[in-house]
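Might you be able to check the backbone structure tokens below? Thank you kindly.
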Amino acid sequence: MSEILMIDYLTLAAIVISLVFGLLRGAVKEILSLFNWIAAIIITRNINRILEFLSIDFFEDREVLLFIAQIVLFLIALFIGNLIIKAIQSIIKNLGLGGVDRFLGGIFGMLKACVIIGVFYYLVDSFTSDLGDWWRDSLTVSIYSELPIFNDMDLLIDTSQDVTEQIMDSEL
């Protein structure tokens, strides 16, 4: 029989905190911030190819140049992305959709927390042999373990690895 344990209270607290942050930030900022980070990572990752064509010799060690260039480019990409996000938020606020944006932000924040917690539970469950009764008796762990995605996570991970390998092979 499942009972409410400390892990359940921590899970609930994480969901509520993420909900509040989502309400405060709004859906547009939550979603676009995620895309902003992804874009900054992709841009930074591809800087290697760009720098190979340039013959800049500020440093004797090309690794140092590459490292500094990646950090600077990452920060610039985040900054530009944040300017775009602020402009879009301003437009939404001027259209009178601020309340809807914040409501949807709360829902997105809550869902984001649920996904992160689900991944955490999956990883703990997969890579730890025996956590004892406290883990099996947890209400939230038992709820997550009944979800179809939780049971099919290995298939999902294998599929995503295959897709990633195909993308990486096609880029070369």
Notes: Residues 6-171 form one domain. The longest helix spans residues 62-94. DSSP finds nine helices and no strands in the chain. The mean pLDDT is 80.
